[in-house]
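[step 3/7] fold_predict: job queued, chain A
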Amino acid sequence: MKLAFFNDFRLGVVVGENIVDVSAAVASIPHTGPGDLLSNLIAAWGDYKGKIEAASAGAGVPVSSVRIRPPVPKPGNIVCMAVNYMENGTLPKKPQINAFHKAATAVIGNGDTMVLPDEPATIFEGEAEMALVISKRADNVKAADAMNYIFGYMNFIDGSARGLASAGFFAMKSRATFAPIGPYLVTADEITDPQNLPIKLTVNGEVKQDFNTNDMAHQIARCIEWASSVHVLEPGDILATGTNHRGLSSFMDGDVVTLETQGLGKLTFNIKDDLKRTWSRETRQDRKEKGLEGPTNQLTGKYAKA
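[step 4/7] structure written:
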């Protein structure tokens, strides 16, 4: 099942090219907004799945005729795995497992705009990732049981403002609009093998990132095991599984970015930078092949170095 919020955060199910409003089927769920509506629905999924399936058989409207909203509007936690890919086998050894938090207020949805702040970042990037959404309270979960704690999957972008003087991932990762997700949340039963899914990111139609989830250094079950050993994960929490960094490149004003993970639909969003700063379009892999380290330098605009 493909769940999506649309227009004024009506809950819908995507069926083919249409979306069917199933809000009436979940009206009895206690909630103050779409965020806790979703988390409470996930926690009580066994009681509501049948009702939603029945409601989704009704008449729908074209997805193209509505505004799609973030499918997880206000997660309690966003846990992002760090350096979790073997970079197409180029890393000499498996990196130590690690993660960081991203602010829930960074979430935006399909068709929305990532805004680059007036900060002296060396570059702005967005990492293509597959994220999972937790189905039930997870506390010190064992890897052997971990896949039973997944409600569903979705596309996820980890936006970054790299090179800020204030060291640490908080300033880099938790800016407003730096977590595009969606376009919908696909329940786990629809994804046969989440550990073998192609992921592709394009910027203005040009492919930048193209990799597969089978290249993860620490597989999904291990990520859940480790994260839940650090703190409890609750229904509706997001765990983003990391990226292959080789294709990372600059995001700039006017860009249209599309992320597609097989089976999870296409997430498309825009980039806005009032300062109109520019960078080269080369990827990290392009620079590595030239014998260069780190991201490209800023070319023009505020904070560009002479």
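[step 5/7] annotate
The chain has a mean pLDDT of 97.
The radius of gyration is 19 Å.
exit 0
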